[in-house]
Design a protein that fits this description.
Layout: H1 2-13, H2 19-35, H3 37-46, H4 50-69, H5 81-95, H6 101-106, H7 109-114, H8 121-134, H9 138-146, H10 148-156, H11 163-177, H12 180-188, H13 191-200, H14 206-222, H15 232-241, H16 248-257, H17 262-270
Length: about 290
């Protein structure tokens, strides 16, 4: 009961015009949505906390854009970043709760998440977290494909950002590639090349490589005859990755997916990468 009352007071406070009060309310909702488990998320859902949170984020992003166009006098400057972070994390937590995703999608959460991109690293991390959650909801994936994320993606990969941010971006890509139509479109827009660059980047770690390989498994399953899969550089890169024991089975999956194409088989044979299952001709997705 105490949780519900605290949450109700915080939701009511989201109608305030005071930035400090809005920030405090957002922090409360962030904490309740992250530390109370499913009970907290169910309460957020039943009390429709997402609606005022989305409205708050929209207002704050609009005001931030105005500040960027016309910087206010020093005495009138307001730091909206802490508020946007707290509200954004609360919404990202809500998006992990499956029943809330359709409603969050209707409230334009993907578009709001896009507003976090291209700003500070702290806001970027929140935006990527929102997209990571919403890309688990198939109807939202089309919006993700059209938002700023796809244009900015090369800036996030290949060692350009810290591991945790690259991991979020790669997870979004993996979710998108699970939908065949999106996977084919991503192939045409050089997603395979981006993922290979990520695999080749230094420093790197197995978690980022795992996500990149998962995306490649789905891409190769969606369109195994794509020209890029007949590129020798593609196999050279994967032959290096296959030397990592934990990642070798994923490389095997990719080889399996493209092993029905004669040109690819010739390259795999040349580089001693023929999969044990290549005669079966089955496709795998993750």
């Amino acid at each position: 009961m105490k949780l519900i009352l605290t949450m109700m007071r915080a939701i009511e406070a989201l109608s305030s015009e005071s930035v400090p009060e809005l920030e405090r309310a957002s922090v409360v909702l962030r904490e309740l949505s992250s530390r109370s488990g499913t009970i907290g998320l169910v309460a957020m859902h039943e009390l429709r906390a997402h609606a005022p949170l989305c409205l708050l984020v929209k207002r704050a992003l609009t005001q931030l854009e105005q500040f960027e166009l016309e910087p206010p006098e020093i005495e009138h400057q307001i730091d909206l970043e802490p508020l946007l972070i707290a509200a954004g994390v609360a919404l990202a937590n809500c998006a992990y709760y499956v029943p809330m995703r359709p409603t969050l999608h209707k409230h334009g959460l993907v578009e709001l998440a896009s507003g976090y991109l291209g700003r500070s690293d702290a806001l970027l991390e929140v935006g990527l977290g929102l997209l990571q959650s919403m890309s688990l909801f198939p109807p939202a994936c089309t919006d993700v494909m059209r938002c700023q994320f796809m244009e900015d993606l090369p800036k996030y990969l290949g060692g350009a950002k810290p591991k945790h941010m690259r991991l979020r971006a790669l997870t979004v890509v993996q979710h998108l590639t699970h939908i065949t139509d999106h996977a084919r479109l991503l192939i045409r827009h050089n997603m395979v090349v981006l993922l290979l660059q990520e695999l080749n980047s230094r420093p790197n770690d197995d978690e980022c490589r795992y996500r990149a390989l998962a995306g490649l498994i789905n891409l190769s399953a969606a369109q195994p005859d794509a020209t890029i899969f007949g590129n020798e550089a593609f196999y050279r890169c994967l032959s290096q990755v296959a030397q990592v024991a934990e990642l070798a089975p994923m490389v095997e999956h990719i080889m399996h997916n493209v092993s029905n194409e004669p040109e690819q088989v010739a390259l795999m044979r040349q580089m001693q990468m023929l999969p044990k299952t290549f005669k079966e001709g089955r496709e795998m997705m993750v």
